Amino acid sequence: MDIRNPSNMVSLETHHRELATNNKCEMQYFTHEVEGKGKQIKRSVSVQVVTFGDDEFGSMLAFIRTIRNEHTNHIDCIYRDDGACKVLYASARYLRTTDKEFARNYKREKKANHIPNPLIPPDEEAIYKALHRNCHPKKKLICKTSHNGATHIKDN
Length: 156
Hints:
- The structure is a single chain.
- The chain is an alpha+beta fold.
- The protein is about 40% helix and about 30% strand.
- It contains 5 helices and 6 strands.
- The chain has helices spanning about 5-20, 55-70, 90-95, 100-110, 120-130, and strands spanning about 25-35, 40-50, 75-80, 85-90, 140-145, 150-155.
- The strands form 2 sheets. Strands 1-2-6-5 form a 4-stranded antiparallel beta sheet. Strands 3-4 form a two-stranded antiparallel ribbon.
- Strand 1 (about 25-35) and strand 2 form a beta hairpin.
């Protein structure tokens, strides 16, 4: 969400906090990224990180669907971190900000593992379906499941 309009940012952050809480998140916080020079702000965003436990997978999917349906933000990335970080979804915008080799490998893997694919685990397929544009519109979101089993969602 754009933080150059403070009143809009506060109301959106409050709304997103309530959404995460209503969807049984374990933890959440906001961080802000600002780019520019002098008094010129070229880019300013607020990133929400939301953590879900493994037993709240359905709630995490509902949170993703709700965020996508609201058109208020953009989902950038969803990833699982259970020892090794695995990107489940990355938007084209997010890939432009990453290392070129990472982006190339992600695109190659995504092409090889398109849905439907019997080799994709059911939980990953459910996440892909929750992200599907026909059902659920925009939000910047980063998800991860940590080694302790918690799922993190970071949205912007």
